[in-house]
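Q: I'm writing up a methods section and want to include an example of the input and output format. Could you take the sequence below and give the corresponding predicted structure tokens, formatted cleanly so I can copy it straight into the document?
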Amino acid sequence: MATVMLGRDNFDEIVNSNTVVLIDFWASWCGPCRMFAPVFERASEQHSDVVFAKVDTEAEEELAARFQIMSIPTLIAFRDQVPLYAQPGVLSPAALEELIARIKDLDMDEVRRQVAVGGQKTAAARA
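A: Here is the clean output for your methods example:
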């Protein structure tokens, strides 16, 4: 599956209607973003059950602000509408594969319990 471009008009719809969504916040002038783009694209071709999406931080400043993007690239991962991972930096192909596997393997009932007890930051630490 090819990557999907996200903007404020389709962001919530994509995240809310898919089980696993990985979002790459990037900009065209960013060297590390250009390095990570082919890794992200290759992974999208290997995982048809995951939505791989991109947010151009220059065109979508509102979304970048909503997620407090301070450094790019930043990868944010959602499963069942719960943000589980949010980190800036480039991931190697192996690290991205490991992250995807960990997200898919999570016990989401346990994650929801932890969110109820300790808040969203606890869920982010699970992946």
